[in-house]
Amino acid sequence: MNTILYIGEKSGFSEQLSNYLIRDGIAVEIQNTTEDCTSRILSGLYSLVMIDTSFCVDWIFTVVQIRQASDIPIILAENDRNQANAITAFKIGADDYLLKSIGVLEISLRIAAFVRRCGANKNIEKPKKETIFKDLRIDEYSRTVRKNGKELELTKTEFELLLFLVRHKGQVLTRE
Q: Do the strands 144-147 and 130-133 form a parallel or antiparallel pair, or are they unpaired?
């Protein structure tokens, strides 16, 4: 399950946002302080950070600090339209700037879209393009194996077995 970090106060807005997002498989962790926020983000637990600027008075410093350490998506939410804040937000690295008045449902849909694009597959192990083991080069995308530059002819089963053994090198394995 993806988790977002919401920096703001626990309120009707944050609770409603959490209820909408949980339906999309996204948990919301509410933090009412920016203390230790960067190290929490660097832990890799979050797919996105949302900052309530009406609650977080040091939001500019917080966004700059997060952006220097990570490329995690950052969304800012504000009660009232302030063009200077919006311009500042984008210039310092925020990915979106929203007014809470657009509604919790739309905000939750925007967050879900960001998570889908940026972080939904971060926990899924993607196949490496090429695995090198001694003098073998195993290309998992094209499912080919080269030894000293020469392509080896392997059946599907042989390829799967070789890849399995290389991925588990140094481990004692059963016959199965």
A: unpaired
d(CA 145, CA 132): 10
pTM of the model: 0.65
In the block, residue with structure tokens 């929490």:
40
pLDDT of amino acid 129: 63
Q: Tell me, what amino acid is at 7?
A: I
pLDDT tens-place string over residues 127-160:
456 677 788 888 876 778 888 889 999 888 888 8
Is 25 in contact with 1 (CB distance < 8 Å)? Answer: yes
